[in-house]
Write a structure and sequence with these properties.
The longest helix has 14 residues. The strands form 3 sheets. A 6-stranded mixed β-sheet has the order 6-7-8-3-9-10, with helices on both faces. Strands 11, 12, 13, 14 and 15 form a 5-stranded antiparallel β-sheet that branches. It has a 4-stranded antiparallel β-sheet with strand order 2-1-4-5. Helix 4 crosses helix 5. It contains 11 helices and 15 strands. With 319 residues, the protein is of the alpha/beta class. It has 2 domains: 217 residues, 3-Layer(aba) Sandwich (Rossmann fold), CATH 3.40.50; 79 residues, Alpha-Beta Plaits.
Length: 319
C-alpha cells in the first residue's frame, strides 16, 4: 500500500533524507520511529505530496505518486504534526471545508456524521476549534484525515502534547478505525510504537537502519541482553565485580533498593546488568558475586524492549 524507494531530499547543503526506502503492506500499522531531526516529517511530506523528492520513487495503493499526485492524494488521509486548524471555525465547518478542498467522493453529510461518531466529537461538533482542548483538536484532525475512507493514513506525532489519559483514548481510537486501513505512524516515542504498531521502520540521520515486526526487532542479533540482579553487594563493589566478567556491564538504569530482610537485616539492592549477546553466562556472574563475598537473592532475564533494539541499531549504524 505504501512503497518508497531510495528517497532523497536536500535543503541546500543539508541532506535531510538519504536514500530511504520503506514498504507497508495492506492493513498493517507501521511505526516510523526515530529521534527528533531523523527525517520522519520530511519523509511523510514527500509521501503525501507536500514536498517533491530530489530522487527516488513513491507508490501509494499502486499509484505512482510522482506521476499522478492528485490520484495518490485521494487515497491518503493525513494528520500533520500539531493538527493545524482554523480556531475561528466550528468543528463541523472545518470538516465541510476539508471535504470540499480534498475533493472527497460520496455523501458529505453521511461521511461527516460517520467520522464525528467514530472520533467521539458529537458533543463538540458545533463548538469553535479555538475553545477545544488539545486532545479534542487532535480528534478533529484525525476525523478530517478519515473523511472519504482513505486506504492509507499518515500520522505525524499524533499524541505529541497529550496527557496520559488523552494518549490512551487516542490509541483506542487508532485501534478501532485501523481495520481495513494501512497506517504509517511517525513518532519518537518508543512506548507509543510498541503499544499500537505491528511493525516498525527505524530511521537515523535520514537513513533506514532497521525494519521488521516489533518482535523481530526486539530479538535482533547482537542486541544486548539484560538481567535483573538482586544482591547484597554495594553498588560500587558490584560495579567492580561486573567489570571483571567478560561482556558484562552494570547498567545505570533500574537500580532500586529492596526493604531490609526482617530476620537477617540484610539490605538488598536490585540492579540491571547488561550482557553483550553471546558474551557470557549468568552463572559466571553469580560465581563472581559469591567470590567477592556477596549473595544473590534473585537473577532473572529482562524481556528485550524496542528501546534496547533502537539503541543497538543506532550504535551500529554508520553515522
Amino acid at each position: 500500500m505504501i512503497a518508497a524507494h531510495d528517497l532523497v531530499k536536500r535543503f541546500g547543503p543539508v541532506e535531510a533524507v538519504s536514500g530511504l526506502s520503506l514498504e507497508v503492506q495492506a492493513g498493517r500499522i507501521c511505526g516510523f520511529l526515530g529521534p527528533n531531526g531523523a527525517g520522519k516529517t520530511t519523509t511523510l511530506r514527500m509521501l503525501v505530496g507536500v514536498l517533491r523528492p530530489d530522487a527516488g520513487r513513491i507508490e501509494v495503493d499502486g499509484v505512482d505518486a510522482l506521476a499522478d499526485p492528485k490520484e495518490a492524494r485521494r487515497r491518503i488521509g493525513y494528520l500533520p504534526d500539531g493538527a493545524p486548524g482554523h480556531p475561528e471555525m466550528r468543528v463541523e465547518e472545518l470538516l465541510r471545508f476539508r471535504w470540499r478542498i480534498c475533493g472527497r467522493r460520496g455523501s458529505r453529510r453521511v461521511e461527516i456524521d460517520r467520522v464525528v461518531g467514530e472520533c467521539g466529537l458529537s458533543e463538540v461538533r458545533r463548538r469553535l476549534l479555538g475553545t477545544l482542548s488539545r486532545g479534542f483538536r487532535q480528534r478533529v484532525g484525525l476525523a478530517a484525515a478519515l473523511l472519504g475512507r482513505p486506504s492509507v493514513l499518515l500520522l505525524d506525532e499524533p499524541t505529541e502534547g497529550l496527557d496520559p489519559m488523552q494518549v490512551r483514548e487516542f490509541r483506542s481510537l487508532l485501534r478501532g478505525f485501523a481495520e481495513g486501513c494501512t497506517v504509517l505512524l511517525s513518532s519518537h516515542l518508543l512506548a507509543e510504537v510498541e503499544a499500537v504498531c505491528d511493525e516498525a521502520v527505524l530511521v537515523l540521520d535520514g537513513r533506514r537502519v532497521a525494519s521488521g515486526s516489533i518482535e523481530s526487532l526486539r530479538q535482533a542479533p547482537g542486541a544486548a541482553v539484560r538481567w535483573r540482579c538482586v544482591t547484597d553487594l554495594a553498588t560500587e563493589r558490584l560495579d567492580e565485580v561486573v567489570a571483571a566478567v567478560p561482556g558484562a556491564r552494570l547498567s545505570t538504569a533500574g537500580v532500586a533498593s529492596i526493604p531490609a530482610d526482617g530476620t537477617t537485616g540484610t539490605t538488598w539492592t536490585a540492579h540491571e546488568i547488561e550482557f553483550s549477546e553471546g558474551a557470557g553466562r549468568s552463572e559466571t556472574l553469580v560465581a563472581a558475586i559469591f567470590a567477592a563475598g556477596g549473595a544473590v537473592r534473585e537473577l532473572q532475564p529482562r524481556r528485550r524492549s524496542l528501546e534496547d533494539a533502537f539503541v543497538h541499531f543506532a550504535g551500529t549504524a554508520e553515522r
